[in-house]
Specification:
Phosphorylase Kinase, domain 1, 2 domains, two-stranded antiparallel sheet, 5-stranded antiparallel beta sheet, Aminoglycoside_PTrfase, alpha+beta, Aminoglycoside 3'-phosphotransferase, Chain: A, domain 2, 223 residues
């Protein structure tokens, strides 16, 4: 497949223009599993969850290349930064997307309580299209306890809030909206989310150092 210009870049992958309204997401380190990621995306899409359509097996490197529907619209983060979305709206939207995802049954686990987990649902992984929000970047997806998914999103937001600066207050507002109903965030889910963030090799020492303050901020919202 011919690729065009680079249109996006994350911590571990780049996104290129492709053909016929599609994009190619390529893992920069060559260690991704696009086959597994595409499979979970198609599973949740078939259950009505808002994700891009994927075309598996259409490139010469199916393990690192994922061909997806091209979405038009800003990320939730960009809309928030531009003033088109309030922090409270952003946090509420993330909560709604998590609740909706956790109604999708697992497709591999035999545990009846297991659900599909995104594990990286934050404002830069939601595209606001004319048809509503669509969730991208399913490279971390697993099946398990929904409390872990809530914990991961809460910790990601809380780390940004704990860093201080001009965005700290707005992000804390989004965190409060996310946790307006704190029952979804379990103690085990929060503990595991903190452990995973601390062990994440893509995080800087400064980001890891923010985890105790992030935990305290989350717990203050649960009291």
């Amino acid at each position: 497949m011919r690729t065009g210009r680079l249109i996006g870049a994350g911590r571990s992958a780049d996104v290129y223009e492709a053909d016929a309204g599609r994009v190619l997401r390529r893992d920069r380190e060559g260690v991704g599993d696009a086959v597994a990621e595409g499979a979970v995306m198609e599973h949740v899409r078939k259950h009505g969850y808002p994700v891009p359509r994927v075309w598996p097996g259409v490139t010469e490197s199916p393990r690192t290349d994922l061909v997806m529907e091209r979405l038009t619209g800003p990320t939730m983060l960009r809309a928030w930064q531009d003033g088109a979305l309030t922090p409270q709206e952003a946090g509420g939207m993330l909560a709604g997307l998590l609740r909706r995802l956790h109604r999708v049954p697992a497709y591999r686990s035999a545990d009846p309580g297991a659900r599909v987990l995104h594990l990286d649902l934050h404002p830069d992984n939601v595209i606001l299209t004319v048809d509503g929000p669509r969730v991208i970047d399913w490279s971390n997806a697993e099946e398990g306890d929904p409390g872990l998914d809530w914990g991961m999103t809460a910790v990601i937001l809380a780390q940004v809030a704990a860093a201080g600066g001009p965005v700290s207050g707005p992000v804390e507002g989004a965190l409060a909206a996310l946790l307006a109903d704190p029952r979804a965030l379990t103690p085990d889910g929060l503990a595991e989310a903190l452990r995973r963030r601390a062990a994440n090799p893509t995080m800087s020492r400064d980001e890891v150092g923010l985890l105790p303050a992030a935990e305290a901020l989350i717990r203050s919202r649960l009291d």
